[in-house]
């Protein structure tokens, strides 16, 4: 598996998201885990909110796998906090962050989180409170590294006024079809063009590259926001024709080409898979080994309907 820079270390360019394992029995979770590990994926993405109730998917993962201490040490466990579905709010207060981390540690049956991400920007954030929580969690050895998700450059700058730990990751929605963070800068300053509208606070990919923050692409195969995958979807016929041709040329499956479109980006992003199907994990992981040409990357971009001014 190709690796990318990740904080002071490296991590696989394809990682396994655990948002959709809520209704899975132990055996399919073990199979999914084994497929990921065999494909070189030792990095698992969680969140406190995944599943029907708080910490449900984290618990399903740990209960199904019953990892030994030695195997726990082999993997990276990342989770997120900051969303409070029961109260319809976001919460980056000291109390909430610390409480959620304690809950995740219990659910994941571990003594430390390798990475903690702040899930979605809290409008009422007080950077000093986040810093106090991070300092305490780091000093107690409960969290090893910190990052964010769905954050704009300015929101990260604001956190950095008080947070002293490096913010090493920003998890952002990105697929060939849902690509405003890449497509907007390409159409910059085009009056009247929808694609020119800034939705990410401006240049989030460039900001992450400048600051050594790894972009993690979530929903890498979804057409839009949980609207279903574009792969094999007749609504994206032109895109799938290009994907299928390239898949045949590289002797891989279409999901590998969709993965390669993200891993080809020089920002050295990670693709956060959401599939619970072991074969799809294997097929997607194969995409990280493919280096699409510049022409192929842009052909996929255009076939997805994005404007190239
Ligand atoms: N930070 C955030 O705000 C945020 C938001 C959402 C998600 N995430 C993270 O990102 C991960 C991925 O998100 P996602 O699940 O929406 O991404 P995804 O990988 O684009 O979508 C996976 C879903 O598509 C289904 N699917 C149907 N046909 C497929 C095909 N041909 N190839 C692949 N999948 C197919 C999968 O079903 P099967 O399971 O049956 O294969 C699964 O339900 C999550 O697990 C989570 O860790 C983060």
Automatic annotation (TrEMBL):
Its EC number is 1.-.-.-. Keywords: Oxidoreductase. It comes from the Bacteria. The keyword Oxidoreductase applies. GO terms for molecular function: oxidoreductase activity. One of its GO terms (cellular component) is cytosol. Residues 15-299 form the NADP-dependent oxidoreductase domain. InterPro entries: AKR_Detox_Biosynth, NAD(P)_OxRdtase_dom_sf, NADP_OxRdtase_dom. PANTHER family: NADH-SPECIFIC METHYLGLYOXAL REDUCTASE-RELATED, OXIDOREDUCTASE YDHF. This is Oxidoreductase YdhF.
